[in-house]
Amino acid sequence: MKRSKFLIGVVTALSLSILISGLANADTKIMRASIFSANDFENVAINNPQMPAENCAYETPENKSFNAQTIAVRRKLKIKTDEVFRVTVFVKNSGNMPWFSGKSTCKGPHVSLGTDKPRDAASQFYAKELDGVVDTNWEGNNRIGMDQLRVDPGYMASFTFFSRSPKSADILKENLTPVVEGITWMDDAKFSFDLLVGDTEMMPADVRLRMFYSNQSGSAMDIPIDGEKSFHLNLDTQKMHIKLGDYVVREFTISSGASATPTPRGEYSVILKQEVRVGGKEPHYIMPNFMMFDNRGYGFHALPSLRGRGDAFWTEARSHIGIPVSHGCVRMLPEESQFAFDFADIGTKVHIER
């Protein structure tokens, strides 16, 4: 019997090691938590009273970098009303500096999860104390602590928090971003997750739409999914707001026309949609997710490419986004243009101002 328990322990430890190694080498920004079994992450402990002796020593590189990659968010998608629940987020330290938790006695960089959209706002899930939970792991109403005392570059950190769901049915979104306190927010690793609380008595398709369109942290129950669709562009700020009624579904940074070839201002609507459009004049730009809003040829599209020497393709630098450099069209990042293209219908209103 002892030998069997020993072998089970070895197999479990080996499986967990393989799992974490796979996560650490993940290429995707966020992996689907559903690929893991129900017991894969049960060993994450934040209430262990026997803390190991800390190693605070580290060498500071000449060029410090704080980077992160969100790997997985583990939680129930649907919970009951007035239910205590747990969420665990796995984040890889992809920079060159170690991370230390708020419970660490070391003086190195303190890393936690911070609330976002709006940034630093009090979380709807904040719970200082809960019956039956030794430590909810909230450092404040807008910060979630790291489970480990220290996480070195290349290794995985986890952030676990406990909360209680509201007493009435709801559709909730939470936006979170890893933050190095007093130094920087690691925006490349920002993420969000949704929770369905109780029975909303909505059609499943309407629930999915609310989850899809929700942008800010909080309830998605009041999103006007049947509201009027519109695009609002400000050429001075190079910002584009996608709206349903008055609700801002998304905010994107764009690249409008250069001073010599400005994007026209005024009131328009989407009059043509093409998955790919090729310019009729040299150099024959290839423009994915094209949406024309003016019959002179002005439209929205993803960053263009063109055929070059040797039939090679190049894609315009992402660094141009936020700078007015186009020939009059509104250029967008590929993934953001895809959202806008899928969102818009023929007739969607377009408002362009300075």
Structure in words:
It is built from three helices and 24 strands. It has two domains: 27-32 and 63-219, Immunoglobulin-like, CATH 2.60.40.10; 229-353, L,D-transpeptidase catalytic domain-like. Helix content is 12%, strand content 34%. The chain is mostly beta strands and 354 residues long. The radius of gyration is 24 Å and the shape is flat. Strand 10 (170-180) and strand 11 (184-185) form a beta hairpin.
Which descriptors would you attach to this protein?
354 residues; mainly beta; Immunoglobulin-like; L,D-transpeptidase catalytic domain-like; 2 domains; eight-stranded mixed β-sheet; five-stranded mixed β-sheet; flat; disordered N terminus
Task: Write down the overall geometry.
Answer: flat
Mean pLDDT: 86
CATH topology of the largest domain: Immunoglobulin-like
Count, helices: 3
Tell me the name of the CATH homologous superfamily of the largest domain.
Answer: Immunoglobulins
Following the backbone from N to C, one meets helices and strands in this order, namely HEEEEEEEEEEEEHEEEEEEEEEEEHE
Can you give the helix content as a percent range?
10-25%
Portion in beta strands: 25-35%
- What is the total number of structural domains? 2
Question: What is the alpha-carbon Rg in Å?
Answer: 24 Å
Distance between the termini: 76 Å
Coarse structural class = mainly beta
Strand elements, count: 24
Corresponding CATH architecture of the largest domain:
Sandwich
The level-1 CATH class of the largest domain: Mainly Beta
Low-confidence stretches: 1-50
Please outline the major beta sheet: 8 strands, mixed
